[in-house]
Specification:
Helix content: 10-25%
Shape: globular
Low-confidence stretches: none
Largest sheet: 9 strands, mixed
Radius of gyration: 17 Å
Number of helices: 4
Oligomer: single chain
Mean pLDDT: 93
Strand content: 25-35%
Number of strands: 12
Amino acid sequence: MVSAPLKSKDVLARIRAEIPAEWAVSPGYVDYDAAVAFMERRAAKIRAGQAPELIWLLEHPPLYTSGTGAKPEDLLMADRFPVFKSSRGGQYTYHGPGQRVAYVMLDLERRGKDVRAFVHGLEQWVIATLDAFNIKGERRHGRVGVWVDRTEPGGPRHEDKIAAIGVRIRRWVSFHGISLNVEPDLTHFTGITPCGINEPDLGVTSLVDLGFPVTMTDADVALRSAFEQIFGPTLQADAPTW
């Protein structure tokens, strides 16, 4: 049996919380291993009631990560950038300059304990963020992430992925999160089969590639506003240290 699609009002009812989550932005590039180690520690503290929830925005230097479903043949250029094995779900993805990574450490035990609603909420967060720039982001059945339809009138179908989603949930605390392409070097995605999708009518895009001169600061403002619409209030916090 196929589950019925979730509606936005269902998501808001299940995953919204009124206790503010911390919101932090790191300057410069953050080492991937250091970021994962920090998330592991923070998630454990959240579960123990020793730290508040956290949304952490950052950029990584150019790298590839392989999720728990990654296939070896999807790593096309193993020597191009460092490759990190990741505990998040999904397959191969790219992180690098010009891409806003948002790591989401939320206590799902008090946000409905509903993984499906949580992932739906992450998608809705990206869609609402894109809407701030008059870009229509869409879900696609069987393809995790958020997509933009770039089919020309009368032409063949073409869709590009603008945001990836990959999360890990441990003891009902989430970590890892989303990545939104603001202005990355899109040629860097050619070293992998992104998320295992290699159909000729599917590609990768960014806000700037779509013709919108969006800065990282612009994207951050839109992300925060959209997050608060979906998940609840935030409180500005210092960037993590380790």
